[in-house]
Task: inverse folding
């Protein structure tokens, strides 16, 4: 690839306004009218003032600096976790387009907003996670100035645009996207059609180099992603194995319900089989059959030992989870304490 790429659409079809001067924020505080601060033109591109990084820390986006804006863009479009397990994504999804938004609702899925790029188009049960299309991707000048100079950002951004061509194919899709906060409310159907048509002229959807390789797949199943990430993610560590791709448990009871509900079904099946064997042993044809008696004996022993084994494994997993979360909490507390001590020392030195 060349060092500098081209925006995927011309300036005239951009869906918002942008200039580098517009993003400059004053470093000195000034007195303003709170009401007037909300009275800005919706067509102008405005980046957030802060964001949460991977560690949960709040980071400022200083548009006058050299590093904070590129770091924000890398965070906003980060697909590194999926790229790391790309060769196994065929286990979690098919290499086809994602369903349009109206189809998602037709099959009973609830649209959940996520701001994390690698959760976009990931689904579980009756939920699908969608990341709203960043407004800076709707402006060709912003592409030229900030995205086209970095191949990884360029490919990831083009992939997100392509995903919204999958999702928004009709007026109803556009209305759903705007109602759910996925697209800006001021975009008209005519302007979206022109925008989409222009993107298709610049993005070769049949070429792997055209977009980030994550977007060679459409919707990804979260349950399978969790196991793929536990087994194949690098580096291999206990945290990745325990939490998986996304830890959806805020209570231990939820963890037990999702992972061990099958045990109840297994116990019911074992009970039915034991009852049938008991009836069989009462018949003249089977009570003297040595093979049937041996099978009944073996299955009876299995029925006695399997619950003990299952509950033993369950108890061990719960103990491991409790100690893991306790260890993580202590590590976080120690880091916070060390950071506070460092800041106090620096303040004293000054």
Result:
């Amino acid at each position: 690839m060349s060092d500098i790429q081209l925006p995927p659409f011309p300036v005239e079809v951009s869906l918002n306004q942008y200039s580098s001067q517009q993003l400059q924020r004053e470093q000195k505080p000034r007195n303003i009218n709170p009401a007037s601060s909300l009275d800005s033109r919706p067509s102008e591109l405005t980046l957030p003032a802060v964001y949460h990084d991977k560690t949960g820390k709040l980071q400022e986006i200083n548009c006058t600096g050299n590093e904070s804006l590129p770091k924000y863009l890398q965070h906003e479009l980060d697909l590194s976790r999926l790229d790391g397990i790309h060769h196994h994504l065929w286990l979690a999804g098919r290499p086809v387009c994602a369903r349009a938004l109206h189809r998602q609702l037709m099959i009973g899925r609830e649209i959940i907003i996520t701001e994390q790029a690698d959760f976009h188009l990931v689904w579980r049960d009756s939920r699908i996670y969608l990341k709203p299309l960043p407004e800076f991707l709707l402006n060709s000048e912003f592409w030229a100035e900030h995205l086209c100079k970095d191949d990884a950002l360029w490919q990831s951004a083009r992939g997100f645009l392509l995903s919204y061509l999958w999702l928004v194919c009709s007026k109803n899709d556009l209305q759903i996207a705007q109602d759910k906060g996925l697209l800006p409310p001021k975009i008209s159907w005519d302007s979206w059609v022109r925008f989409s048509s222009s993107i298709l002229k610049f993005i070769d959807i049949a070429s792997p180099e055209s977009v980030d390789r994550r977007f060679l797949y459409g919707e990804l199943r979260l349950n399978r992603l969790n196991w793929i990430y536990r087994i194949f993610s690098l580096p291999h560590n206990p945290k990745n194995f325990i939490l998986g791709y996304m830890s959806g448990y805020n209570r231990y009871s939820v963890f037990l319900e999702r992972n061990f509900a099958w045990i109840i079904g297994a116990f019911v099946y074992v009970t039915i089989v034991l009852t049938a064997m008991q009836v069989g042993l009462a018949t003249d044809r089977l009570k003297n059959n040595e093979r049937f008696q041996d099978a009944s004996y073996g299955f009876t022993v299995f029925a006695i030992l399997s619950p003990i084994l299952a509950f033993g494994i369950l108890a061990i997993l719960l103990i491991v989870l409790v100690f893991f979360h306790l260890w993580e909490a202590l590590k976080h507390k120690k880091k916070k304490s060390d950071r506070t001590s460092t800041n106090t020392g620096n303040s004293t030195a000054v």
User: Anything to note?
Assistant: Strands lie at 50-52, 58-60, 110-113, 122-124, 127-130, 220-221. The chain has twelve helices and six strands.
